Amino acid sequence: VTSSVQGFEDEHEALYKPSLNALNSRATAYVFDLNIVPPPVASGVVEIDGTYALANHWPPGYCYFIIPFWITGMIYYLPVFLSAITCISVYVLAKRLYDHKTAFLASIFAITTGLTMLILYSRGLADYAAMAFATVGITLFIESMQNHKKNGQNLGFALMGLLGGLSFAFAVTMRYSTVVLLCGPITYVFLKIIRF
Question: What is the pTM of this model?
């Protein structure tokens, strides 16, 4: 068994090493040495105008989001931060749409889901961050719609709606599939228009 595994590794190295060496000799903007460090997960090497570079199919928003946490050494607090903003925004949204008891239960469910528990014991996950910012965005948007009708103050609630939109847009830069969640606020606005 050992000789067949060694034979496979030799054959694999013989097949790919020449092309990797040729690639490394031509790559000017390439950060990784493919013979030592493989490219990150979901990344590939692409050629753009004769220059080789890494390309990743994941959206860039989460990478930009975690930079301050890495720089300050607080990366291990990222899941706690995301869980807190999720819990608070779920509570505010459920309280706005239902009542205090429902809001409390909804925030408890949001904080104790399996995904949240998984996130709390890891360094973070872009899907959870996208969900957190999408929830904040929807909450701010609905709060601005509800309060605007009650108080008649335009500027403050317009800014709240704008911040909600920016938060939701930031969530989309973390996971493009978050766009599907726009059906909720669009339906909400449509129902508000029909009622009046």
Answer: 0.68
Which residue reads 């669009």 in tokens?
186
At 122, the amino acid letter reads S
Q: Which token pair is 118? A: 């998984």
**Whole-angstrom distance, CA of residue 196 vs CA of residue 193:** 5
Higher pLDDT, 131 or 11: 131
* Nearest-angstrom CA–CA distance, 67 and 63: 7
pLDDT by residue (tens digit) across 13-34? 544 444 444 444 444 334 445 5
CA dist list (Å): 30 to 11, 23, 58, 74, 189: 26, 9, 18, 29, 47
CB 119 within 8 A of CB 135: no
From residue 5, how far is each of 11, 14, 25, 134 by CA, in Å? Answer: 10, 14, 29, 48
Helix (H) or strand (E) holding 176: none
Contacts of 52 (CB under 8 A, 6+ apart): 23, 26, 27, 28, 29, 30, 45, 46
